[in-house]
Amino acid sequence: MNTLPPLPAGIELIALTKQYAAGSVAVDSINLRIASGSYCCLLGPSGCGKSTTLRMIAGHETTSSGDILLENRNITHLPAAGRGTAMMFQSFALFPHLSALDNVAFSLKMKGVAKDERHRQAQDLLERVAMGHLAQRKPGELSGGQQQRVALARALITQPRVLLLDEPLSALDPFLRIQMRAELRRWQKELGLTFIHVTHSQEEAMALADTMVVMNHGRIEQVGPPHEVYNRPATEFVARFMGGHNVLDTTQGKVAVRNDHIHLAPLANGESGWPATVHDVEYQGTYVLLGLRLDNGQTGENISVMLPEASFAQRPYAPGDQVSMTWAAWQAHSFPPSPAA
Ligand SMILES: Nc1ncnc2c1ncn2[C@@H]1O[C@H](COP(=O)(O)OP(=O)(O)OP(=O)(O)O)[C@@H](O)[C@H]1O
Asked: GO MF terms on file (predicted)?
């Protein structure tokens, strides 16, 4: 009987629901435990409820029902400033007329902390994100990546336990986005804080998350580490949304097969695979992406197949070619029955 109580979750959502006065249910009774000190990405298509969920955790949006616990403390009805969370926004929301230092020190000023002390703390944090030497610059004199670091320092000055990030990289150009995403990940590990990051990018979520939460229509479709969500999508929606999969209607029901797990051969008499016709060939660098249509009249679904550049070079295909598709049985994933069914 000497079992230890489970470690408190960084954030726990219990039957959390949001119904906006005007509309349908934006967040529909979701349950979620996010481990303390982990990087969690909330992912899903536009309108799935991820920002509403984040805003409820932040205290920027009221809940309709359910509870939010932060390290076992019920914060559901606390004001935003008293929760132990801090938010970093898409546009960074820095004050343009204030220096980086004053932007970072701003919330301490609001709390009445003396100028010397708040500047000391703000300078410390700016040093920590390698921005100490630019403390006197205004946001307009900083690059997108530098502004992101100032925004991070500003969020950290309230000493949050949980940092909430709402599409923090979407304002950056693609090159900087990849660089800053690596920085976010490094900071999260260094600080040991719980990060909850909302994104609509599967790639971003896979690169960053310890835990991915895929949402659809206000509900959670799947929670798990990226490799599990990608390799064992729990629902047809997840398989399609994550991309890189084909959903095929087999005699055993619907299965998901990764597009790099499908093998092609020229169609020959007696072939045992699925016959299909190539309609599209796209060169992508390290691989070639083929678009196929099934010849058995099934669904009219487009199938994508990814071939390594070298195998394509050995056996090229062109639009109009008839091929036979095969895959190993163990690489076809059926979907567990949905709990609602
Ligand atoms: N203030 C509001 N009043 C009424 N309905 C709202 C409000 N904010 C969001 N919604 C609705 O709630 C649902 C979820 O919106 P939410 O912003 O949480 O989605 P999201 O997944 O973050 O989308 P996006 O990626 O486009 O930001 C949508 O149907 C949206 O139209």
From this structure: ATP binding
Distances (CA, A) of 252 to 82, 239, 256, 300, 303: 53, 17, 12, 19, 19
What ipTM was estimated for this complex? 0.95
The size of the chain, in residues, is 341
Is the pTM above the cut of 0.80?
yes
Ligand 1 atom at minimum distance from 20 CA = 4
SS (H, E, C) 17-43: EEECCCCCEEEEEEEEEECCCCEEEEE
Q: Which residues line ligand 1 (CB under 6 A)?
A: 20, 22-23, 26, 44, 46-52, 200
Distance 207 CA to ligand 1 centre (A): 25
Report which protein residue has its CA nearest ligand 1's atom 6.
20
Q: Note the pLDDT of residue 252.
A: 83
How far is the CA of 334 from the CAs of 223, 246, 249, 273, in angstroms? 17, 12, 10, 19
Q: Which residues of the chain have pLDDT under 50?
A: 340-341
Kindly give the distance from the C-alpha atom of residue 52 to the centroid of ligand 1, in angstroms, as a whole number. 6
43: left (phi over 0), alpha (psi -120 to 50) or beta: beta
Q: What is the pLDDT of residues 151-184, one digit of tens each?
A: 989 998 988 999 999 988 887 788 888 888 898 8
Across the beta sheet with 85-88, the strand order is 85-88, 162-166, 194-199, 39-43, 211-216, 219-224
Which residue CA neighbors atom 28 of ligand 1 most closely? 47
pLDDT at 49: 95
> Going by CA atoms, what residue is nearest to atom 3 of ligand 1?
20
The dihedral region occupied by 332, where left means phi > 0, alpha psi between -120 and 50, and beta the remainder, is beta
What is the atom index within ligand 1 of the atom nearest the CA of 27? 14
d(CA 46, CA 88): 19
pLDDT of residue 6: 63
